[in-house]
Every structure is written in structure tokens, then in C-alpha cells.
Design a protein that fits this description.
Spore Coat Polysaccharide Biosynthesis Protein SpsA, Chain A; six-stranded mixed beta sheet; alpha/beta
Length: 259
């Protein structure tokens, strides 16, 4: 799967000593480790940290597992990112990934990404200029993470909406810089942007195209919480059905979903 999940057009390695690679999870831990591996295969980070309650049997040698209490809800995940993770970050920036997103091509990294306190994929549903962005694959500064712990920061869930929508003006008043939409498209693709043009991506519905149907099918069998794909089930089922053995695979997914 490693050969499928990480594709670099540049062929070289990128060094980011200012950035810590992080993931926080209590579900789909094996898939999360694979996402971290995909990033580490192309980039040398200052550090790589997986925050989880679960024992990790294997992982890349550069990955540090940090034991935390079990996160029993999406709200608990948001609270950890906003109030606790910064205690473990010593670099100026942190790249947050989840199991369903990772670096696609290190050759598309742009040094100006580090000029901003927050970059995530653009949200196409917002047209008020506050459309950056998704937290599932996001670059955020340590000073922004510190600001999110201040008493004046309002609301905690979802954490990316709290940062980029609810508290954006408050953060900007304190000097925080959010990347413009055009740069966010170069950084990450979720429901806007193009996978062929972006540094990384987020969203399980993008995975069949991003890593290939066969690699996605292997990953699907490793998920301990398949409910995480039901929201975009129809589009994923369509893409899986087009691949090798598509009818049988689609049938298996339908049984998992409705059986």
C-alpha cells in the first residue's frame, strides 16, 4: 500500500524543520498511522506525533506515540486540539492530518504557506470571504493554538469552524493571518480544489482517486469504525464499483452499511 498511497511528482524529499506532523484519534488508528507514513515518506518534519489512547503495534520509526485519554466523541477531539495539543508542540507550526487525508506531493509545497497562522481546504458553501478552512488536513501556527486556549475564545466544536468562522475576526484582531482562498486551494483539496494541483487533501470521498481504488479497498478493511464513511457513502460506492471486482466490492459495502 505504501507505493500507492504516496505519490511524489518531484521525486525528492522536503525538509520542514519548522513543522511538527500530528494526528489525534481514538478510532481507525491503523489507517491514521498509514496517513502519517504517507507524509513521512516524502517529508522530513521536526517531529511526528500520534496522540491516541490505543496501543500501536507498528509504525514508522520517526513517529512518537503520545498516550492520551480515550476520545469518546467528536467534541472531545475538538477540545483536545484546541486546549491540549499545543503543550506538545515546540515548532512554529503544526501539520494536522486525519486518517482520511495526507500529503499528496511534497513538490507542491510553497514556502509562503508558513507565512500564515492557518491554512486548510476551502469551504465552498461559504461566500463571505471566511471560507478557509477545513481542519482535517491543516497547517496552523503555535501562536494560533495558544490563542485558542484564551478565555475569550468562543466555542470549541467543530474545532475548525470555531477557529475559522466563529472566532476568526477575534483571532485576526490579535494578528493571526488566515491564508487566502487561492493559496488554500494550492495547499489542500477537500470539497473544493483539485487533487492534481494540491499539496495534500482531506476527505474519505477523495480517497479512491487520491490513493487508487485497490489501496482504498485494503484500507477500508482495516477501519474499526466504518461509520466514518457513511456520510459520503453514495459517491464512495460509485467509485469503488468502477474498480477491479467493483460489483462484489460494492455489494460488500452495501451489506456493511445496511445488512
Amino acid at each position: 500500500m505504501k507505493a500507492d498511497i504516496s505519490r511524489s511528482a518531484s521525486g525528492g524529499r522536503l525538509s520542514l524543520p519548522q513543522v511538527t506532523l500530528c494526528a489525534v484519534t481514538s478510532v481507525n488508528v491503523a489507517a491514521t498511522v498509514r496517513a502519517l507514513e504517507a507524509c513521512l515518506e516524502q517529508i522530513d518534519f521536526a517531529a511526528c506525533k500520534l496522540f491516541t489512547h490505543a496501543p500501536v503495534e507498528s509504525g514508522p520509526p520517526d513517529m512518537e506515540t503520545v498516550s492520551i485519554e480515550r476520545l469518546d466523541s467528536a467534541g472531545a477531539y475538538s477540545d483536545f486540539l484546541l486546549t491540549k495539543m499545543v503543550d506538545h508542540i515546540e515548532t512554529s507550526h503544526c501539520l494536522v492530518v486525519q486518517w482520511d487525508g495526507h500529503v499528496l506531493d511534497a513538490g507542491r509545497w510553497r514556502p509562503e504557506f508558513l507565512d500564515y497562522d492557518y491554512i486548510g481546504a476551502r469551504w465552498p458553501q461559504f461566500d463571505d470571504g471566511h471560507d478557509v478552512g477545513n481542519g482535517g488536513f491543516s497547517l496552523r501556527s503555535r501562536r494560533l493554538m495558544e490563542a485558542c486556549r484564551e478565555p475569550e475564545f468562543r466555542g470549541h466544536h467543530p474545532e475548525d469552524v470555531a477557529i475559522c468562522r466563529r472566532n476568526r475576526l477575534w483571532l485576526e484582531e490579535r494578528g493571526m493571518r488566515f491564508a487566502p482562498s487561492c493559496l488554500a486551494d494550492d495547499f489542500s483539496t477537500e470539497r473544493a480544489g483539485e487533487l492534481t494541483n494540491s499539496f495534500g487533501y482531506h476527505g474519505v470521498f477523495n480517497m479512491p482517486q487520491a490513493i487508487g481504488v485497490d489501496a482504498f479497498w485494503k484500507l477500508y478493511h482495516e477501519l474499526d469504525d466504518r461509520g466514518t464513511i457513511w456520510h459520503d457513502f453514495r459517491s464512495i460506492l460509485r467509485d469503488v464499483g468502477r474498480g477491479s471486482g467493483g460489483v462484489l466490492r460494492a455489494g460488500r459495502m452495501l451489506l456493511d452499511r445496511f445488512g
